[in-house]
Every structure is written in C-alpha cells, then in structure tokens.
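Hello Y.,

Per our agreement to keep a running log of every chain we model this quarter, I'm adding this entry. I've kept the format consistent with earlier entries: sequence first, then predicted structure.
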Amino acid sequence: MLVLICRWAIVGNFFGTYSRTLDDKSRLQIPTKLVDSIPSRFYVLRGFEGCLSVYPEEAFKDLLASLKNLSFFSEANRAYIRLAASSASEMPVDSHGRIALTKQLVDDYRIGKNVTIIGVLDHFEIWDAVAYAKYLVAHSPDYESLAERSSRENG
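Predicted structure for the entry above:
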C-alpha cells in the first residue's frame, strides 16, 4: 500500500479563482496553484449559497472540532450540525490530481460541466460557473459595505 505524505504550500491559505471543466465522469482537476502537492484525499461537504466546500484533512478536523463545540441543546445548532455532518464525505484524489464528484453531488448542487473554484482561506469552494457569476453580480457592488460590517462585527 502506497502512503502519501503531503505538505501544503500555504497551510490554511487558499485563495484565487480558477475556471475548470468537469470531464465526462464528473472528475475535477484540482488547480495546482492551490497546493504544493496534491493530498490523497479531500473532505467535501455542503457549503453556503449553493456551493460545495472542500477541506484538506487538518482544516476538516478543525471544522469538526468547531461543530463539536456547539451546544446540541440549541435547535439551530442541532440543525446546522446535522446538515453539515451528514453531507460530509471523503473524496479520494486520483493519480492525476482529480476528484470525482458523485452524481448525487452534481445533481444536488446543480453543478454543470463548467465550474469555478475559489479559495476561501482554510478551504476552497466548487461552484457551478453560472451560479458563481450570479453570486458575484449580486454581492460585488456591496464589497465596501460588507467589509465595514464585518469589521464592526469582528472588531
């Protein structure tokens, strides 16, 4: 059995936007600019606003820890924990640096042949290209006010 030991180029810092096309088997080539070397697996789960969130193992462990820290006595927490944890799956990476999206993922998240991959610090997201373009149109004009509101909420 071959064991791969991988080192991330910049641990916890995924950034950039990449256009990709799914092949006929719904395989997606991971942009090599995202990582120094491709790991043997990623963890994929339901994202926000209709995307898929993809985590390397260490960041996925951190996400699980944050879910475990939520009180299960809160109805909102229970719902979030259930939805997030039940949607998670391990996604092996093939020898060509691709992950194969299942038919269920492609159907559930309405992912077409053309996708956009965006880095969002500790993970990256897979969006249907048209859905991401619509997201940009809806949110880009508010960039400054979003930054200001985020600063107030976290500052």
